[in-house]
Amino acid sequence: MHRKEKATCSGNAPPQFQACIYFASIFQAISCGIHYLASVFIAITPKHVCNVPGNVTSVLLANSSSNRIEDAWELWTSAKDYLVVQLENGEVWELTQCSRTRREDAFNLTYDYEGPRSTQSCSDGFLYDQTKLESSIVTDWDLVCERAWLAKLAQPTFMLGVLFGAVIFGDIADRVGRRPVMWFTSSGQFLFGVAVAFTFDYYSFVIVRFLLAMVSSGYLVVVFVYVTEYVGIKARTWASMHVHAAFAVGVMIVALVGYLVRTWWIYQVCLSITTLPFIIFCWLLPETPFWLLSQGRHEEVEKLINVMEKWNNISTPCKLSELCPTHQDEPVSEITEKKKKAPSVKNHNLLDLFRTCTMARRTFSIWLVWFTGSLGYYVFSLSSVNLGGNEYLNLFLSGAVELPSYIVACLGMDRLGRRNTLAPFLLLSAVICGIIMVIPQDFSALQIAASMTGKFTIGVAFGLIYLYTAELYPTIVRSLAVGSGSMMCRIGSVVAPFCVYLADVWVFMPQLLVGFMALLTGALTLMLPETLGEPLTSTMEEAAALGARRDRRAQKEETAFSDVALEKLEAPV
To answer: Which portions of this protein are annotated as coiled-coil regions (predicted)?
Structure first.
């Protein structure tokens, strides 16, 4: 009778309650993708030259002329060239990006001039090319020339906020619950997102964006835990991938809104209100039963189970003792008293991941995978707008190629194995980076295709590292291992913008660095044990023996096969 009750309790109807919670939660993850990549159009630096003290009547380039400086932007292809302009008062000026020179003899308007001249600073501001965008933080606050480094710091400081947010809100979620953190961070994304649009100077912009990064990262970290605790074991791999997919949809929305809105603060407001429906309904999300159980709040768990039963049309009521047989029907007071009397559990720290040579090598390799995955992901994403062609379409494709990559990651993990999927795609990323470096820059279509392929391969590796890390470590340090790996991931995201800026030193420097890291990490991954079909380990000894255990099992199978073959050979014909 008891067995029949449990089967009825599980039910055959689809879990409508969990499905609604799941899709509502990952919908807000779209906003994380939006804010993480929004700066590619907020902090874009257009063509610019020093402004002049007067109205321009004529403009000269090396091989063309115009009456308006707005018409000269398309013809001005090299920043090393200068513009020659004549003002209404007859003065002739040579304009470069960061300086201006007034010709003393202005009788003949020619491009080449060898006479006396006086060089001045850009005290009248700058003239910007508004062909593709009306304004950005660069044009509003003149973040060019000696102030250009401020614009380049916009994305790294955001990623620094991502690092702090992951640490702070991940810990808070374990203390006060998942639901309050999701409430606060999702509301914070909307409020800080809108506030960014109305900042009055660069420094207030950076501060508010830093806070926006913290709450965005906090939500993304907690939502992984939240959906995992609400879906079944069989669906957890796909559930985590859907969160990644929602992030990719956010990247695609950035490209679409950037194409439609060319004023940065309006663009920021439009991006921030994209997920407003979730803010209205997020207050209805319940706490996860796993966290409530960990806090001994069994009555609330019973109420939550009753709500699930009504939503999922389960006829036979479920009892907490059926879902958690270890407690059976013990009163809450007895459970609490047992917890007090139970011996204290040893607290583990980061050094436990390096206790033995085997675990130290494993931790080093896994940390490199996290770092390289994040570095490659953001290098390919941020540099997509610099590939030539339509930068909005490039960024859209950069997000779109992630969707099939996560499907491939799921299929590969379940069929080929974790290591056997991760290592080849990391090595393939290195090969593609090498291919990008040998493609001539004139072949922009090939450059874009190769870059999108690189984003696809690094997306596969980046998508499966969460689950693989959890399976490589025992229960006692599993959260610590995933958390430390996530920290390396955030460090990679902080380094990525600087890596992209190295293209000013050499155009292929970002691909060289990502390719080298992917090659090194892929080679080290080949030495990690395979975890497909292996039970989760509980002790450090079991985790260290993962690879050896599989090797011994394979050796036994091979020996058994050899014995059978030998018997057949020795059998009389």
So the answer is: none
> What pLDDT, on a 0 to 100 scale, did the predictor assign at position 520?
95
CA 308 to chain CA centroid, Å, is: 33
In a domain, 299, yes or no: no
3-state secondary structure (DSSP) of residue 308: helix
Q: The tokens of 114 are what? A: 């060898």
**Alpha-carbon span 305 to 294, nearest angstrom:** 16
For residues 514 and 426, membership in a common domain is answered with yes
Q: Is the pLDDT higher at 7 or at 297?
A: 297
Chain centroid to Cα 311, Å, comes to 34
Type of residue numbered 363: T
Helix-strand-coil split of the chain, %, nearest 5: 70, 5, 25
pLDDT attached to residue 110: 79
* pTM of this structure: 0.82
Question: Encoding tokens for residue 314?
Answer: 């389960």
Q: What is the DSSP string of 186-202?
A: HHHHHHHHHHHHT--SH
Mean pLDDT of the chain: 81
Residue 450 maps to a domain: yes
Beta-bridge partner residues of 117: 103
The pLDDT tens digits for 296-344 are 777 777 787 777 777 767 666 665 555 554 444 455 455 445 545 545 4
Q: What is the spatial distance between Cα 279 and Cα 547, in angstroms, rounded to a whole number? A: 46
pLDDT, residue 321, reads: 53
Give me the phi and psi of 348, to 5 degrees please: -100, 150
| CB distance 333 to 461 below 8 Å | no
DSSP single-letter state for residue 285: P
Residue 341 lies in a domain: no
Residues 453 and 504 in one domain: yes
If residue 30 lies in a helix (H) or strand (E), which one and from where to where?
A: helix 16-37
- The DSSP bridge pattern shows strands 83-87 and 48-50 to be unpaired
Return the pLDDT at 572. Answer: 43
| Gap between the terminal Cα atoms of the chain | 57
Question: What is the residue range of 255's domain?
Answer: 24-46+145-285
Task: Report the number of secondary-structure helices (H) and strands (E) in the chain.
Answer: 24, 8
- Give pLDDT tens digits for 141-159: 999 989 999 999 998 999 8
Report H helices in 118-153.
137-141, 148-152
For residue 410, pLDDT beyond 90:
no
Residue with more model confidence, 75 or 449: 449
Domains contained in the chain, number: 3
DSSP assignment, residue 47? -
Q: Are residues 252 and 276 in the same domain?
A: yes
Per-residue model confidence (pLDDT) at position 124:
86
Higher pLDDT, 20 or 80: 20
In this model, does residue 421 exceed pLDDT 70?
Answer: yes
C-alpha distances in angstroms, 127 versus 69, 96, 124, 208?
9, 10, 9, 28
d(C-alpha 343, C-alpha 341), whole Å: 6
